[in-house]
Amino acid sequence: MPELPEVEALSAFLSEHLTGRVIAKVQPVAISALKTYDPPVTALEGASVTSVTRRGKFLDIEAGGLHLVVHLARAGWLRWKETLPAEPPHPSPRNPLALRLRLEGGAGFDLTEAGTKKGLAVYVVRDPAEVPGVARLGPDPLEVTEEAFAALLRGERRRIKGVLRDQSVLAGVGNAYSDEVLHAARMSPYKLAADLDEEETARLYEALGSTLREAVERSRGLAAGELKAEKKMGLRVHGRTGLPCPVCGDTVREVSFADSSLQYCPTCQTGGKPLADRRLSRLLK
Fold it and tell me: What is the pTM of this model?
């Protein structure tokens, strides 16, 4: 799933390639991806793009006083092309294309989504706050102060892994970077947020900012098509089950859930003790 660093890089890339240019055509292909109907997508056609910004994991393309807001979900992506195919896109069960935006001159991008579970969402609104997911966003982790961060955790009786992923608490952190932040902070993903003392909170705050800023810097200036590979190359524990931890050499372990998993280093994060994987335990009974 694209998270804050990748969406930040996409926003910068699109800002450079879209700002000041005129939208010729917006063509929804997967109707399920389009979540609004008033204003219609055709209202964007003929308008000049004035800005592209990031709101959490959402992309916000402003044109003609309207906002094309995109959430790429788990398996969505944006593919830029200097010359889009001349023929109109057609819906197909085998076609991952969800929407095409064409600029005057023929350049533009396709929004695609792999897999059978469709979560990619596109909205055309007059105000980004009309998008439910945008309206409930918490503060941006690159802008939140340490005092405000501590206040967000105070009284939270949930595991810190879940708190970091909650978009109403912090906007933009998902499964991958929450693993990375907790590894950098040398903290168990199972630790309750409310139980963090002052030193642990400060350590987690520092890890949050440094991990995300480093990822943003690695992604800066990359073309859209290069961002996925850069993300994978930069991860230390997420997606690296069974490989050695780059910090201590211990084996990276995994805990599986119904629709996701987390990765961690026992030596760095849990005092050398493996976390219980309840789903695996049930299978072994």
Answer: 0.91
